[in-house]
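User: Fold this one for me? It's NAD(P)-binding domain-containing protein.
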Amino acid sequence: MNDVMWEIVDVRDVADALLLVYEKPESSGRYISASNYITTKDMLELLRKAHPNYNYVKCKTDGEHNSPITPTSSEKLRNLGWKPRKLEETLLDSIEYYQKTGLLQDAEGEGYSCHLPEMFSFFHAAE
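Assistant: Here's what I get for NAD(P)-binding domain-containing protein.
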């Protein structure tokens, strides 16, 4: 798997942004809620630290990013008062949710089958 760049925004932050734009009389036009960028390698490292007992995909770190991301800015939304969550909170809360709903294999060996979110469907599990 190549080390690609991901643009991640918490759905709770998107909801907050929608309410903020709706409630602020000075809001107008389009708003971008793009708060975080992370490479696949960095995302896996962050998740491994928090959840070392899960199986993770392999990530090549010697190549360049295959899919360039056009930089986006949420400055206009932040100027209205939007305060998105930190990336770590978003990712770790997502893993907690996936655990509670049985979407991830249980690290304690309780036999849940592993169904990762769709974005990981094209990656191969680590050997």
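One thing worth pointing out: Strands lie at 5-8, 36-39.
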